[in-house]
Amino acid sequence: MAIDKVFPSFAAAVADIPDGAVMLIDGFGGAGGMPSYLITAMRDHGAKNLTVVSNSLGLPGFGTRSEAELVDTSILFANHQVKKAYASFPVPRSPNVVTPFIEALRRGEVVLEVVPQGTLVERVRAAGAGIGAFYTPTGVGTDVENGKEKKTINDKEYILEYAIKGDYALIRAHIADRLGNLVYRMTSRNMNPIWATAARVTIAEVDEIVEPGELDPETIVTPCVYVHRIVKRPNKTRGTEA
Amino acid sequence: MKARLDRETIAMRVAREFKDGDFVNLGIGIPTLASNYIPEGRTVIFHTENGALGFGPIAVEEKDQDIDLINAGGQFVTPLPGMSFFDSAISFAMIRGGHVDITVLGAMQVSEKGDLANWMFPERGIGNIGGAMDLAVGAKKVIVAMEHNDKNGKYKIAKRCTYPLTAKECVNLIVTDLAVMEVTPKGLLLKEIAPGWTPQEVQTCTEPRLILSPELKEIEL
Amino acid sequence: MAVNKVFPSFAAAVADIPDGATIMMDGFGGEGGMASHLILALRDHGAKNLTIIGNTVGTSGFGTKVGRDFVHPGILVKNGQVKKAIASFPVSRSPSNPTEFERAYIAREVELEMVPQGTLAERIRAGGAGIGGFFTPTGVGTVVEKGKEKRTIGGKEHILEIALFADYALIRACKADKLGNLAYRGTSRCFNAIMATAARITIAEVDEIVEPGELDPGKIITPAIYVKRIVQRPKEG
């Protein structure tokens, strides 16, 4: 039988996500790499006690032309669905802006682990690559090293960081073929291809779906082995969308 | 001497293990032949360590041979729609990270616990580990396809491996020219035997004690 | 001045490689990914006591058409330039067809550190990514674990492997722009794209050099930051 990973709706693609799932979400924080429709479907689906692994945890207006066009993980915090978050950039730059994440933190609903951005990416990559843990120089001599094992390798100090594996990854790509091969568009690639490798089930929200063979094999960034479900966004144009 | 199955038939039996949509990595030798016998109606996507997924059959004609499209055995393969390329770090991240459903490997020895030795004959003094250790550790299912005994008639299925190991307790299924055996916590379960052979005859060619499956049958293709 | 990393000759590109250098090379072992002209230039240059890091250390007839041969790291071994190899596939499959390296190894002229292929790729990647070492399950319970730290992570045994970083990487790509952005072709990407990240000086041998902007950004696999020198191969006759 021909492989076809296309799902008919965002709701159907997230329907089996259980309470307590570990979710890898969010390209970088901007609208371009954000799986906005999948996040909305997650909110409507309502699974609780989620762990969110993400670069940001909701940044109003970041990487968009207007606040209104960005749906991000904020709506999951506002809906009381998240109990734990790993992030490198959890709050807005301005202390005057209070996001739904900050409100959830203040309510005591959510526990936060701040991770340096490169370490966050590497920890998720490690999970996808079957690496249990690794030594990185990032964070040595800072609060990040607290409670972590240190080791000197070739005269340089490192700290030990462990892999983070997800149950589901919600990613955003530009074009998919029906097998699940993905290409991204410009800076909206960032964490998405890494997140795609490290979850039991990876769900991709894309602008366009094509037949196998229509994507140039040299440009495929996420090979289909990593992708389990694909859903097409209603608005196909990209880069020009209002 | 009774007839044993030929290499093509072993490969044909191995291919029956491939399910629709499986990602499969085939080692050199008998395993590679399995790509010719995908059961009808199933789509199997092949992975190769040197960085490709979803390629087609071996390129036989010289005009179809491209030095930039080879498998890990150095053979030329052909393009297929939906194929992709990636570097070796990503390729092995796929393997070690548990994304490859099945790997089929050749072996020098397999133990009753599923230990695998397939990279070095000690008398040569040197061998090639290549990608075998990563595949044995990382693939979700490890199938060994090989002759049941070596050229001198010695056991290849042994109580314990005497050659250097590729990985411990990694093999799930052994397909040979005499039998199909599953590695279970209790030992090797004999599930299928070659036409004309009795379980007792297969046992004499095998060092560890075989457990006879209640559903024991002739190898089906 | 505009950035231009193009060197006029293979000889000029390898001229400063000193004795004792650690050099990554060889793609995967086949003709397609092999920086043959750079390896030849290194042979003529003559630097000694080299440590070479590669998947193979030269295997004749691999990944090439019948009757064809190509230059591979075996010529450096034959020329007595290699002190040590770090490799996963150092010899031919058949003992009846020994490589230059196998002869030298049996004669105790060269040292060998044998590394599983995925661990080799990951050690090189780690070197390029500033990761000091990592815990992998590959090699547990085999000769590979000897002398290495072991620990159980998530109920699974792992061994500690240390990153590899080289003085030079000799890599093969399909196209470069003058800034040093590289695109590859098919399975010739393999080790080239990761070795490019893990050396002090990466030298790329390419089929074609184009102006910046002529490579589709979606096809650039090795961004220019990793590449120091580019040399164009002569056109195939």
Structure description:
Chain A has 242 residues and is an alpha/beta fold. In chain A, 19% of the residues lie in helices and 25% in strands. Chain A is built from 6 helices and 13 strands. Chain A has helices at residues 10-14, 36-45, 74-78, 100-106, 117-128, 192-197; strands spanning 22-25, 50-53, 82-87, 111-114, 133-136, 150-153, 156-162, 166-172, 175-177, 182-183, 199-206, 208-210, 229-232. In chain A, α2 (36-45) links the parallel β1 and β2 (50-53). The model of chain A has no long low-confidence stretch (mean pLDDT 93). Chain B has one domain (7-218): Glutaconate Coenzyme A-transferase (3-Layer(aba) Sandwich), CATH 3.40.1080. Helices cover 16% and strands 24% of the residues of chain B. Chain B contains 5 helices and 13 strands. Chain B has helices spanning 7-15, 30-33, 88-96, 132-138, 199-204; strands at residues 23-26, 45-48, 52-53, 84-85, 102-105, 109-111, 116-117, 141-145, 157-158, 173-175, 179-184, 187-193, 210-218. Chain B has a 10-stranded mixed beta sheet. A 3-stranded mixed beta sheet of chain B has the order 7-6-9, with no helix packed on it. In chain B, α3 (88-96) runs parallel beside α4 (132-138). The longest helix of chain B is centred in the N-terminal third of the chain and has 9 residues, at 7-15. The model of chain B has no long low-confidence stretch (mean pLDDT 95). By secondary structure, chain C is an alpha/beta fold. Chain C has a single domain (10-232), classed as Glutaconate Coenzyme A-transferase, CATH 3.40.1080.10. In chain C, strands 1, 2, 3, 4, 8, 9, 10 and 11 form an 8-stranded mixed beta sheet that branches. Chain C has a 3-stranded antiparallel beta sheet with strand order 5-7-6. Chain C starts with 9 loop residues before the first helix and ends in a 5-residue tail after the last strand. β5 of chain A pairs antiparallel with β5 of chain C, so a sheet runs across the interface.
